[in-house]
Design goal:
Length: 472
């Protein structure tokens, strides 16, 4: 195998390279063997202990990473694709994103010196790939913060009846997000993630129930005949179809973030339990909530979807969802800032101390990345385009291309093994190529629609005070 060529080689990044485990994925003794020998965060007296997260809290973090924005974007994508193709896309990406999460987790446990997705890229492709993937990851998280700022500005506009400029609401949201993300440990913010998930779940459930009680969608003409726009099979153009497919994909593309969560778990071998619980809850909710809202709202569904049942329900649902929207952005920002923080202070005495340098680097990371997210949100202030662009440019390379590439590095010899080993090897190659299609097609389609939206006035000017919500 390829990994045997660099067995136990100490790389310049501090990452220990190991061959695949002979235990066929059984990492039950991982914490006993490697607790302090290879991990970035050491358990030592006098140092800040970052590895304190249990598997249930880890699962809550993973759920909040995905459920915060994805559930608000699914119904409008179902309108573009149609109920049947859209459902198949949701189920297909649910399986693929879960599988790639397993690949990332196992790769992390086989190579315990890895802290985040950037380190995976270094092992796979060297320093150039590491820098590319690190940039995509932080930009992707910044886009997610931007989407949250857009969603929060819509929420505050709805609750206050536009009492202030949307830019002001976004700026205020940015400051709260930056402060919340500045708590240093996942363990500290982990309990918030379950509260955030429940707030989002309840708010969307209220909308789901509300739309089924209406005789016709609130955005549709209230008298006379009208076209609901519900289709079992849609008729999208290439551009609109790829944007919708990419939007669904990124709604569950949390695998790259999971590596950092593993790095702060008390028992990394419990990662799969956390991953499976997360993906079952998230994807079952996507499928059921998305289909119900689309069935009753059709083409009149709003994006974000919380505005689909009228002003009163919109205010109630956004009021309940505020915690979830804030917590989701806090988790995204924390992940990006932690990557930058570890990159700057890795192997330094300041990494796990309470020094001035430690806190300066940490706070500069959280507030700096959050400011970038705020600027991006005001530059492209339409929710579904932000989500799709994040998926195609940033998370398709990270979630669809990198996991199979990492697997192929360790198991390259499978291409000449047994029949099933060859099939497994071929599946990784196909998964990699699917990622390339989403990168090219999704980016092309989304950029074309953004350009058209600016041309026809669907998107207002940058830093405009207008509401940033839209209907499909």
């Amino acid at each position: 195998m390829a990994a045997e060529a660099h067995m136990y080689e100490k790389e310049s990044s501090g990452i220990e390279i190991y061959p695949p485990s002979e235990a066929n994925g059984d990492f039950s003794d991982y914490t006993l063997k490697d607790e302090n020998q290879h991990e970035v965060f050491k358990k030592e007296e006098g140092k800040v202990d970052f590895r304190t997260t249990g598997w249930l809290r880890a699962s809550g973090i993973m759920i909040k990473v995905q459920f915060a924005l994805g559930v608000l974007n699914i119904p409008s994508n179902l309108y573009v694709l149609g109920a049947l193709p859209g459902s198949l896309v949701i189920v297909g990406y649910a399986f693929l994103n879960t599988y790639n999460g397993v690949l990332f987790g196992d790769f992390k446990l086989r190579h315990p010196g890895i802290y985040d997705v950037k380190d995976v890229a270094y092992v796979v492709g060297g320093p150039v790939l590491r820098e590319i993937m690190a940039a995509l990851y932080m930009i992707g998280c910044a886009f997610c913060v931007a989407s949250s700022c857009v969603g929060l500005s819509v929420a505050f506009n709805s609750l206050s009846h536009h009492a202030a400029c949307s830019v002001w609401w976004s700026f205020m949201s940015m400051m709260v997000i930056a402060v919340g993300a500045s708590f240093r440990k996942f363990h500290t913010i982990g309990w918030l993630t379950w509260a955030g998930f429940l707030s989002m779940y309840v708010s969307v459930f209220i909308v789901v129930v509300a739309v089924t009680t209406l005789s016709r969608p609130v955005a549709a003409p209230q008298t006379g005949p009208y076209d609901l726009g519900y289709h079992v099979i849609g008729n999208p153009t290439f551009e609109t179809g790829m944007t919708a497919v990419t939007g669904i994909f990124v709604s569950g593309a949390g695998a790259p973030m999971n590596i950092q969560v593993i790095s702060e778990m008390r028992k990394p071998a419990d990662y799969r339990k956390a991953l499976y619980l997360c993906n079952v809850i998230v994807n079952a909710s996507y499928l059921t909530f998305g289909l119900v809202i689309y069935r009753w709202c059709g083409k009149w569904v709003a994006s974000p979807s919380l505005g689909s049942a009228g002003q009163t329900i919109k205010m109630v649902s956004y009021g309940i969802a505020l915690i979830g929207l804030f917590v989701g952005a806090i988790v995204y920002l924390h992940l990006a800032a932690k990557m930058l923080f570890v990159r700057i202070l890795r192997d330094s005495k300041h990494l796990q101390s309470n020094s001035v340098i430690h806190w300066t680097v940490w706070l500069a990371s959280t507030f700096g990345i959050c400011a970038i997210g705020f600027i991006l949100g005001e530059a492209i202030p339409i929710f579904n385009y932000l989500i799709a662009l994040t998926g195609s440019i940033c998370f398709a390379p990270l979630s669809l291309c990198l996991p199979p590439a990492a697997w192929l590095l360790d198991y390259w010899g499978y291409w000449k093994g047994t029949f099933w080993q060859k099939m497994f090897w071929a599946a990784q190659v196909i998964s990699f190529l699917c990622g390339c299609l989403v990168i090219v097609g999704g980016t092309y389609g989304t950029v074309k629609q953004i350009v058209q939206a600016y041309a026809d006035g669907t998107i207002g000017k940058a830093f405009d005070c207008a509401d940033n919500s839209n209907s499909s």
